[in-house]
Amino acid sequence: VKLHVAYSPESSLPADVVETIGLRHDGPVGEQLTNPQQVLVEDRAYFKIERLDRFVEQQQLFVMRMKDNIELQQKKSLNRLASTSSSVQTDFTCQLGTKQCRSTKRHRVVIVRDANGRDIRVVTNLFHASAETIADMYQQRWAVEVFFR
């Protein structure tokens, strides 16, 4: 059994829960948790290029970890104030994927280094937030994991 959770940071409680069997793919279930009033923060199991483009069209805000094999096309750096204490490595916009399957929209990518020194690639359509805020939002996703332990 898997639980897919919409988590409310204000109350530190789940806002919505969808239960599935363990063998069901996570991606389509994530669609059930969409709410334009909230920011979706999801792990790479929910990642699909077409879904990101659709979220932009539907004005569904999101922060999502990218799969490691996703190619980044036509990168354009975003100006940001560098901080020596920040875990953010880089911040840019790009199209995602290959010629055969490429996003039609430009997405923002923030690469953040985790506590173990690994780079985590996060994609978002939050252009008004700082790269550090986006990194924090993704890292707070773990609050859901901790809630159920």
Automatic annotation (TrEMBL):
Check the record and name the InterPro entries matching this protein. Answer: RNaseH-like_sf, Transposase_11
Pfam families assigned = DDE_Tnp_1
Give the GO molecular function terms: DNA binding; transposase activity
An example GO BP is: DNA transposition
Top-rank taxon of the source lineage equals Bacteria
- Transposase IS4-like domain: residues covered: 1-149
User: Can you say what this protein is called?
Assistant: IS4/IS5 family transposase
From which source organism is this entry? Geobacillus stearothermophilus (Bacillus stearothermophilus)
